[in-house]
Amino acid sequence: MSATTATNYKEIIDNAIKAIHTRGFYAQYPEHPKAYGEEAPVKGLDAFNNQLNNPFKGLLQKNEAAWIGEESSPYTGKPLGITYPVFEVETLVVRAGRAFDAWKKLSVDSRAEILVDALERVKDRFFEIAHATQHSTGQSFMMSFQASGPHASDRALEALAMGYEELQRFPANVVWEKPMGKTSVVLQKQFKAIPKGVGLVIGCSTFPIWNSVPGMFASLITGNSVIVKPHPKSIYPIAIVVAEIQNALQAKGVDINVCQLAVDTSAKLVTKQLAEHPLVKLIDYTGGSAFGSYVESIPGKVTFTEKAGVNSVILDSVVDLKPVVQNLSFAVSLYSGQMCTAPQNIFIPAGGIKQGDTVIPYEEVKKALVDAIAGIAAHPQMGPGTLGAIQSEVTLKRVNSLKDIDATILLQPTKVANAEFADARTCSPIVLEVDAKDTGIYEEELFGPIVLIVKTKDTAQSIEIAKHMAEKHGAITFSAYTTDEATANTITEELESVFAPVTLNLTGNIWVNQHAGFSDFHVTGGNPAGNASFSNPEYVNKRFVWVGHRRV
Amino acid sequence: MSATTATNYKEIIDNAIKAIHTRGFYAQYPEHPKAYGEEAPVKGLDAFNNQLNNPFKGLLQKNEAAWIGEESSPYTGKPLGITYPVFEVETLVVRAGRAFDAWKKLSVDSRAEILVDALERVKDRFFEIAHATQHSTGQSFMMSFQASGPHASDRALEALAMGYEELQRFPANVVWEKPMGKTSVVLQKQFKAIPKGVGLVIGCSTFPIWNSVPGMFASLITGNSVIVKPHPKSIYPIAIVVAEIQNALQAKGVDINVCQLAVDTSAKLVTKQLAEHPLVKLIDYTGGSAFGSYVESIPGKVTFTEKAGVNSVILDSVVDLKPVVQNLSFAVSLYSGQMCTAPQNIFIPAGGIKQGDTVIPYEEVKKALVDAIAGIAAHPQMGPGTLGAIQSEVTLKRVNSLKDIDATILLQPTKVANAEFADARTCSPIVLEVDAKDTGIYEEELFGPIVLIVKTKDTAQSIEIAKHMAEKHGAITFSAYTTDEATANTITEELESVFAPVTLNLTGNIWVNQHAGFSDFHVTGGNPAGNASFSNPEYVNKRFVWVGHRRV
What we know:
The structure is a homodimer.
Chain A: H1 9-22, H2 39-51, E1 66-68, E2 84-86, H3 89-103, H4 108-123, H5 126-137, H6 141-148, H7 150-167, E3 173-180, E4 183-195, E5 198-202, H8 213-221, E6 225-229, H9 236-251, E7 259-261, H10 271-276, E8 280-286, H11 289-297, E9 302-306, E10 312-315, E11 317-318, H12 321-333, E12 345-349, E13 353-355, E14 358-360, H13 362-378, H14 382-387, H15 393-401, E15 408-411, E16 430-435, H16 439-442, E17 450-456, H17 459-473, E18 478-481, H18 485-496, E19 503-504, H19 537-541, E20 544-551
Parallel strand pairs in A: 5-6, 5-8, 6-7, 8-9, 10-12, 10-18, 11-13, 12-17, 16-17, 18-19
Antiparallel strand pairs in A: 1-2, 3-4, 4-20, 13-14, 15-16
């Protein structure tokens, strides 16, 4: 199905709804940079360079209290020098409340038209967004382009389309006639989806757009206004999106405060103040588990969280170890393990794994994995292109702190040479070896380029532990390699019972880290990794309430 | 649409799904007793009489620890003398967990077939259920028949059909093929709705079936097992339903512990023990607000609550006061105000209300209302038939305690003569008059035959207070009378903003208390009256989790 031929918002949304129900491959926004023409890359780079060391003037929010900004590039180590307008929390919430009162009265189609227009405007800035993402998150340029550009916009459209469909679930007006013998009782009934109010979207530093736009578009299409509070270290990418939503609103004469950017600094965060404000009814959150659990616990809020998980891989048996190891080493290396979907714990039975009729000993499997991971990091092009840079100094410290723990270090972390950016903050994966009994070491998310090989008694124990981890600590992805159908079934049954999605026998150019819009649910919402899912029906219909009126 | 012609479960469910989306009048189970044939009433009465003073042997649960029962009839004042098998909490939960493991593996269609069969079996016991309901709740026979029989079964079918539809929202199996230049990546994807686990359904004393079956059938169709914990004073009606579900399960060779009855006594309630059990994942609750808020606060549970609300009526202007007063007096009298949907606070402006071009003074409106309420209670047939009996001694005490508060008593409560049951526990409505400023008196739910006339400055103040009440204390219904379209719009906008459904200008044989299956949402879930709604999509899709698996 090709969607680029769609010419109006209705067609774009109809195609998206169809895709959501078909769940085969679909993309409204092609992922290849070449699809956007020859001029787009130059225009994007120019815009980025012109923005550096300047105030971000794209927002239409008025009467700011000050200009602040503290982003710096993980690639150059230098500040971006961009400042953003700041507003008092009360100003933001009052404006959001006022904008909500008008926005909720617009028809679903009016809202949909504006939001699709916003996405089309964002599309024209994919290259600037890519540079902005690269130099705030540390992702490679290509990942920045795809994750923050087409993939994010596809997920935004997915949420929008899901909301659009849910809002039409019941008829707006109905005549209800109840037969009562010779007469009847007639009532006019009206069914309305009433939005909850002001939504808050709390962004993270590593995926400032991809993780934020689904909640934004889900809240907006269902008639809520939103305040977008990015991570103070990754503002620029989402600021562009908010600016384009405001442009689309203004083009239709709608209050631009329907979607506001709320900027703060690491020294003086306003997240809690916003989250606890009584007028804020909806909160979308991506980030660490401790703050996520706090968000979930605030009384009177409907929350949509993506927190941390411990993603496991089980190696049981393979047709051929080589492509398995290739796939797996790439999956753990991609963006230096800074994806919420990256595998962390790799369970290998002490007795080794089957390859056809032979058994590959544990030590050999381990060595193959370690060599492959080391190989990617050492490769002059593939290394920096795959690993990117480390977003935060904290992540680097976490890696280094692991050198002291009670585990065998199979692979020491090193700097990854980057020909383009000599000062890039990089770090190749540290690989540790632990025993199944060492749960204290591997039972929490170790965010960043950290891989643990866990030696288990057998696959049954691997399954038992992986299931327990997902149930207790959450899992966003889970991957297994087995050639035995009974084992595959057991793995699937056990992991799905704790609401972890199972990916089996992945090799080639597709990795467990990738969750495709219009097909894969991202996070199930059923285990501690998060309470929401991009985008199932619940993701949108918790943002409004069905109310039925009756009159004679 | 006539549904009685449907001959198999699939047809019954398809018709129900269509009805849910059409939302015009629909009933699978006709509400008139005559529709069930000549023999049914006699058979039902015989069954009831044979059950009195005997153990309830209909359940298939085995190895009970004891037999207990403490129900008594509000009509005769005598114990029903029925005992039920009791089980340890741990026994119930372990059995529910084991049954869940098998039940979740059945296809949606297998589950649907069993559950429709259960409803058909329940239909054959509507008359016994009516007597059981009358003599535990105090409802009149006709209300007992309709509310616990056809209306309840319709709402059960509605939840079942909603679940059936939601479970088919996404394809079970899909081939995903992503074009990658000259090649492509192909994945087999599987989308599964994984049920949450063991559900607990906590019943109330006044509507033991109507309020319990939607949660039971919603949990069951989505693959969860349920433990039904009725109010110790209203067990018999729902015991029949559980017994018939067990019969339907057994007929298909399925573990009958998929649906268990958990009986306790007022002296030793097991509700908290069940609710807090780690294996219990879903809780449906109907009852008081304090316990409901406790249920909502238990960590790790998905809850569906219906608590108390303060239902308001606004009188602004009428075409003709007489039918308005008739309708309203009946609405407050029905089952002596023991319906969660019964109006409580009637707001009348001090300046009176418009009737066409004239104004009816406040005192006159008040008098008309009081006279009409007194008239119903004093009428030899209409009185007992409408008011029924008082379920609980506590309700009677509440009415009597109001005689001491600082308000004008416009109508004193009295016994309602009942020719059939001389010893019936009855009480006509007490009508109090308060001023708008006396919020301390009227701002909480005063369950039972208690009506408050609240004198306001004007309709604007009536709206302001009614909205505030709904937002702060919840509202399950709201009713207004106005001939002015602008006022109607203001009322609707203000009340829907706090998620209260608005019923306008109701006269004749339909009352605000009635929420029709397949059309009216019961409780919106958006204000403190409860967090769930019979039956919107959220009501079923929070009971399972979409999980997507992928394999090469």
